[in-house]
Amino acid sequence: VQLQASGGGLVQTAGSLRLSCAASGHTFSTVDMGWFRQAPGKEREFVAAISGSGGIAWYADSTKGRFTIFRDNAKNTMYLQMNSLKPGDTAVYYCAADRSGSVWRYLGQGTLVTVSS
């Protein structure tokens, strides 16, 4: 099972980026998927998550209204559209899959997002 995040990069404040998470080795259409991030010197934090069908999404307070999570199960891929980015959003972003309570079974490699002021 592999989760590969991509789409990170350098963007200016108020800019946008779209991250992708491609899943392989498993069909994830029946499980929740999510995004986490870890900024330098800080603990990893929850960003957003989405149900297997894509019908339910939930967000951290810090990202609500600016970020949108969605998925394409036909492509086994999840996305995170990030708008109105702030320097505080700078972090390595990780995708995760298969949630049981607050525990995620799979965590992928991260992609770095840097927001310049």
Describe the model.
The chain is 0% helix and 58% strand. The chain has no helices and 10 strands. It is globular. The relative contact order is 0.32.
Mean of residue pLDDT values: 95
Strand content: over 45%
Estimated structural class: mainly beta
Number of strands: 10
Largest sheet: 6 strands, mixed
pLDDT < 50 runs, ≥5 residues: none
Number of helices: 0
User: Approximately how much helix is present in the residues?
Assistant: under 10%
Lateral arrangement of strands in the main beta sheet: 2-10-9-4-5-6
Approximate shape: globular
Q: What does the oligomeric state look like here?
A: single chain
Termini Cα gap: 37 Å
Radius of gyration: 13 Å
What letter string, H or E per element, gives the SSE order? EEEEEEEEEE
What is the gist of this entry?
The protein is mainly β.
